[in-house]
Amino acid sequence: PEKRNITLTLGVFFDGTGNNAVNTQNMLAACTAAHFDISDPDAESILARMAQEQMGVSGTGATSYTGGYTNIHWLNTLYKTDLPIESGQAQAAIYVEGIGTEAGRPDSMIGLTLGVADTGVIAKTDLAVKQIAEAINKFFVEVAKTVSVPSLKVTELRFDIFGFSRGAAAARHFANRIQTEDRDIINAIRYGMNDVEYAGAPAGKTRFIGIFDTVAAIGTPQNGLNPHTANTGDVNIVLRPGVAEKVFHITAQHECRFNFALNSVQPAWPELALPGAHSDIGGGYLPATRENIYLTRPEAVTVPLDTPLADTRTYRHAMEQL
């Protein structure tokens, strides 16, 4: 009998630096007591205390536990994975935790600051590759409930790739791995398809790349471990013609670019600057926060290394102004 042709599209969602939807979800679940309100201006400090008490993480290690969901999380949630098989179109989603983070573990200082090592940009693309086979397998398990899987033929495998911040850099690197037919991606697709007939490109094709404010900020020996440059080291973020059918980049119009050096996609691909700073564009803020910011001119003084902070003139002067 003639097989039913389908196009399978995998949505891959790379979260931003210090953003982890799993850790956010677990923290909010741990704070469901009646006294906790996520919209309370003091919610961040409450989450920080709970992270230390219940998760055993604090300071920089608790970054992903004390923030809100990003737009990557929401896009992942909204990605349609219930298309009727009769349409010949199917979609599945892969979520990749943000750079510097792992679910249930303290955030990594080296990953957060330099974007490298086990939780760095390239490592997150490796994690995405590992999830390809699992996502395809899971899709066929669901399909098998209503359709005979051997009766299907996957004529095309496509990717929709999304990312924010360093996650946008990971999205771009991942797209380049697809375009260059990375052997690990080919193997992952082959393993995921198992006995299902597959007639598409060995590493699939990218349909769409949607990214928010790409800031690779990779610290390498070549740039003196300085993440304040647009140098990306081994992370390949150049989006050449043919890397995807469509690319769209939304950037932060009012970001301080010394802190977040932008990796533009222009002139090859369209880019839209919207009002706001980095996380106004990609998300991750709590609904409301209380910040204590003192808009005073910085003061500096040179003192011996062993001088107590409280004994310095600048410290005393600052305290007088409070």
Automatic annotation (TrEMBL):
One Pfam family hit: T6SS_Tle1-like_cat
Classification via InterPro entries: Tle1-like_cat (IPR018712)
UniProt domain T6SS Phospholipase effector Tle1-like catalytic: residue ranges: 199-289
Name of the featured protein: DUF2235 domain-containing protein
